[in-house]
């Protein structure tokens, strides 16, 4: 009986291994293209310019940005095929979402995509690069500071999907990216984004992309009133303006009680007159307190 008991305990179920900290599951809601509660489409802000390296007639920027996934951008030139997104002001970008459909587009489907960022076309820096086998659906490119300069393989950031063998690569120095809390993606602040199509499925020449959305952090509602030193300065300025307006209102009321309505020009004239009277009284006070000086002629004239 004792031997049997020992044998039964030796075949107990093994304890589950703890998951690696570097493989934590990322929040899915931030990558939901239709959920705008945690992000905004900064690619649609006024003044943003979209340009393409080439396109077929009827398959250009309008089709690329359309929510209708039956429409698409088709290039018409040599690789790499480029999509340039230039903002009117320095803009924070958290991630870029691209819809690919290998079932419909076959050899036109991109399998290697890189994203560069900078202030202009002369200082573009590689930020993120991903390689796919047979991409189907939304593919997300994280632009968080932690992934700007790291090199790692990560799970695909799609709803409920595990690692599908697609390679994520980030370029440069830094730490492994990926926020584990919703809404904690800081993003990068850029003037220009460039999406580069480096290779297609089955070595295809031209490319098809059905939609691209550029996301940034959702504006904090409390930021309109201001926080910190800037908010304090704004509130102080508002209080000063209110105090000035109240004093002017009281002055207008006081003068109005003595007669008819007084205009602003009349108030300024009264103020100037009061300042002049004050200066004259100050001058008179100085004159009375200082003894009169005798001139040199009078002094020598008194000598006999």
UniProtKB/TrEMBL annotation:
The lineage of its organism: Eukaryota, Fungi, Dikarya, Basidiomycota, Ustilaginomycotina. Residues 20-241 form the DOC domain. This is Related to anaphase promoting complex subunit 10. Residues 151-184 have a biased composition (Acidic residues). Residues 1-47, 135-184 are annotated as: Disordered. It comes from Pseudozyma antarctica (Yeast). The keyword Cell cycle applies. Residues 29-39 have a biased composition (Basic and acidic residues). Belongs to the APC10 family. GO terms for biological process: anaphase-promoting complex-dependent catabolic process; cell division; protein K11-linked ubiquitination. Keywords: Cell cycle, Cell division, Mitosis, Ubl conjugation pathway. It comes from the Eukaryota. It holds the Pfam family ANAPC10. GO terms for cellular component: anaphase-promoting complex.
């Amino acid at each position: 009986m004792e031997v049997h008991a020992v044998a039964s305990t030796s075949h107990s179920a093994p304890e589950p291994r703890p998951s690696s900290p570097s493989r934590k599951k990322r929040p899915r809601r931030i990558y939901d293209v239709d959920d705008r509660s945690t992000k905004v489409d900064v690619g649609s802000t006024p003044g943003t310019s979209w340009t393409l390296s080439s396109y077929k007639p009827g398959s250009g920027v309008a089709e690329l940005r359309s929510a209708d996934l039956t429409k698409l951008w088709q290039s018409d030139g040599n690789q790499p095929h480029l999509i340039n997104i230039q903002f009117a002001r320095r803009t924070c970008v958290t991630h870029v979402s691209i819809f690919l459909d290998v079932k419909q587009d076959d050899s036109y489907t991109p399998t290697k995509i890189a994203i560069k960022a900078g202030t202009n076309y002369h200082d573009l820096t590689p930020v993120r690069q991903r390689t796919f086998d047979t991409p189907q659906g939304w593919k997300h490119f994280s632009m968080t500071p932690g992934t700007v300069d790291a090199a790692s393989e990560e799970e695909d950031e799609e709803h409920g999907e595990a690692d599908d063998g697609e390679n994520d690569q980030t370029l440069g120095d830094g730490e492994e990216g990926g926020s584990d809390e919703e809404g904690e993606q800081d993003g990068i602040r850029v003037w220009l984004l460039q999406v580069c199509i480096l290779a297609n499925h089955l070595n295809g020449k031209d490319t098809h992309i059905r939609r691209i959305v550029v996301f940034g952090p959702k504006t904090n509602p409390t930021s309109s009133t201001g926080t910190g030193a800037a908010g304090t300065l704004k509130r102080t300025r508002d209080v000063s303006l209110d105090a000035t307006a109240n004093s002017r209102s009281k002055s207008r009321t006081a003068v109005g009680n003595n007669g008819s309505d007084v205009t602003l020009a009349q108030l300024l004239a009264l103020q100037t007159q009061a300042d002049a009277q004050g200066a004259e009284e100050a001058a008179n006070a100085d004159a009375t307190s200082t003894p009169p000086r005798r001139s040199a002629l009078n002094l020598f004239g008194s000598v006999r």
